């Protein structure tokens, strides 16, 4: 089923417009909340993924977070310069770079769950539990995750 046609498509009424606007708004709010930790919302995804063992290489992080490899490299460079992560070559395949959080990176990761949920909850405050569950389900389906 087509939900848009050439004749009725309006950019400021499209799903893409609202998803982008919601993402940008949320990212600005998360960035502001994380400012004292010295990381951005996008960098938070890297730190938490490494901390929780969800990903361990730049390639895995790129796929998981939907970030192109060039941007991923720049973000990893910044996190490494801040002393939050370390890179090492795989001993079995020198082409593979493994990433690990430093002690400083682990300390930052430990603080994130105290900072970000209130930001998310503020955005979701008018949702019922059922609406929240359905919203999350629809986003997962839309994202193809």
From TrEMBL:
Keyword NAD carried by entry: no
InterPro entries: HTH_MarR-typ, WH-like_DNA-bd_sf, WH_DNA-bd_sf
Keywords, alphabetical: DNA-binding, Transcription, Transcription regulation
One matching Pfam family: MarR
HTH marR-type domain span: 12-144
GO molecular function per UniProt: DNA binding; DNA-binding transcription factor activity
First and last residue of the signal peptide: none
Domain of life: Bacteria
PANTHER family: TRANSCRIPTIONAL REGULATOR, MARR, TRANSCRIPTIONAL REPRESSOR OF EMRAB OPERON
Protein name: MarR family transcriptional regulator
């Amino acid at each position: 089923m087509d939900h848009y046609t050439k004749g009725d498509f309006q950019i400021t009424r499209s799903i893409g417009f609202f998803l982008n606007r919601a993402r940008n708004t949320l990212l600005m709010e998360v960035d502001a909340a994380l400012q004292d930790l010295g990381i951005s919302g996008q960098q938070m995804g890297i730190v938490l993924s490494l901390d929780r063992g969800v990903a361990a290489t730049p390639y895995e992080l790129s796929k998981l977070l939907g970030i192109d490899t060039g941007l991923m490299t720049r973000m990893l460079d910044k996190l490494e310069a801040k002393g939050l992560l370390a890179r090492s070559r795989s001993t079995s395949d020198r082409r593979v770079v493994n990433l690990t959080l430093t002690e400083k990176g682990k300390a930052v990761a430990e603080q994130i769950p105290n900072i970000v949920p209130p930001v998310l909850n503020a955005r979701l405050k008018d949702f019922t539990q059922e609406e929240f569950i359905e919203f999350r389900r629809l986003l997962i389906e839309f994202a193809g995750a």
